[in-house]
């Protein structure tokens, strides 16, 4: 084997090693979200508020973990006071039923409204957050119309979860 062939082989090995190391870095930096955390919740809230701003809406946004515990809440200036509680209830309902709140039909769950009395919301704005097949939390958006809240929640969850899968 002459020097030219050796150099080609070394270059090929270097390139393959570099690709391998880059892939290892990406894999190591990819977070395996088992549950919602503050860092991740901030991404959801920031994205939801971005969509709200595009629509000139004042909203309340809540993120709960897989146990239904509030991780993060944010309310824009001018959002109605009722939206605070409603956003939390939308997130809780979406988590509890693993369904967008706009699709909740209590006829399918007889008695659930009596069990969870004050905690269920059956109009748009709540979305479950499913990452790699696991329910890790939920998002609640309130303050606009039910249709606007639903659209913002859906777009936010889709955008952020897709981004998590693209590490």
Description:
With 167 residues, this protein is α+β, with helices and mostly antiparallel strands. The protein folds into two domains: 1-30; 38-165, Haem-degrading domain (Beta-Lactamase, 2-Layer Sandwich), CATH 3.30.450. Helix content is 50%, strand content 16%. The chain has helices spanning 3-29, 38-54, 82-97, 112-115, 146-165; strands at 60-65, 70-75, 126-131, 134-142. The chain has a four-stranded antiparallel β-sheet with strand order 2-1-4-3. A hairpin with a 4-residue loop joins strand 1 and strand 2. Helix 2 (38-54) crosses helix 5 (146-165). The radius of gyration is 22 Å and the shape is elongated. The mean pLDDT is 87.
CATH C-level label of the largest domain: Alpha Beta
Total of DSSP H or I helical runs spanning 4+ residues: 5
Let me know the average pLDDT.
87
Order of the strands making up the biggest sheet: 2-1-4-3
How far apart are the termini?
41 Å
Count of the domains = 2
Radius of gyration: 22 Å
Total strand segments: 4
Give, in order, the helices and strands: HHEEHHEEH
Shape category? elongated
**Low-pLDDT sequence parts:** none
Helix residue percentage: 40-55%
